[in-house]
Specification:
DNA polymerase, domain 1; globular; 14 helices; two-stranded antiparallel sheet
Length: 353
Amino acid sequence: MLTKKLRVTKIRKKPAQKTYDIEVPVEHCFFANGVLSSNCKKIPIQTIPRDSKMRGMFISHPGWRLVESDYSAEELRIAAWYSRDPVMTHEFATGGDPHKNTAAEIFKIEPEEVTKDQRKYAKSTNFGSLYGGSPRVLADSINDKIELDETPVTIKEAQKFADAWAKRYRGYVAWRYKVHAITKKNGQVVSPLGRIRRLPAIHSEEEKDRAEAQRQGPNSLIQGLGSDICQLAAKRVLMRFSELKLHGRLRFPLHDANFFEIPDPEMLISCKVIKEEMERNVVEGLFTPVEMKIFKERWAGDKWDLEVKTWDEDWAKLEEVFLPLESQPITLFETLLTGCTNSDRVSTLPSQF
């Protein structure tokens, strides 16, 4: 059963029809840090909860499937690239799990002994500490993700997690202080792709405003670059779709992922295009791998039909399912015939920053 909050804030009381063909307008200049805003009056995509019942309300057209193309730990990888933190860089270079390693550091155990709950705490600690959140904010972030029968994390425990994190990733902490100094000197930060975040409050007489400006400097560099990488990848994918006369469509971006709707007969070549273009290096030395999840009928959150992580290992699974479907005709739904093409959609994405 859906909670009262979900029913009130996400669903109309008496919808005019049972299904909607959603086209989500994307705003590039809504958030100051460069993160995309998917502003849809009917469905606020960016705030859709991870609840499987809510996400399961999104369905694909007959003969088509939703493909979630998600950057793996994108913001942590960007933080490692910026800071050159030796521990963080080594974890990604060797294919390690940073959340599990952080949990091992916090709880003073071996990585293979880390439980699912401990990894969950560490994941919230990684992102909370990455963006300079206070112990109270970190505790709230962890408690939002735990089950009802689990013991909430106290502020004192959250402080312990944050201290262990800072000790482990000293290189990243040093980089944050360096960005603080640059922000104070220039009143702004500039990403490698030229995105500027002006922070005049760094010179404010109010300590609270100065602290917030200091926090926003590193955050804008990480989140802004991550958003730009995702946007440019979506543009390249749509350009390739148009060149190859493929029918796949970008349905909506969500955080560090792009959601496409692909017809079954074109799934193999479309997945190749998506993975190639989204993993193309935009910034020298920064590699952001993509994991793809394919949903047969509905976007069910953590329940997908096929997953593509390691291309060589998972390609055989895709061929087994979709190779027999390549000879089938593609079912075109009305909006695809009457709406804008992929070439038109490319023009709505930014060409430069």
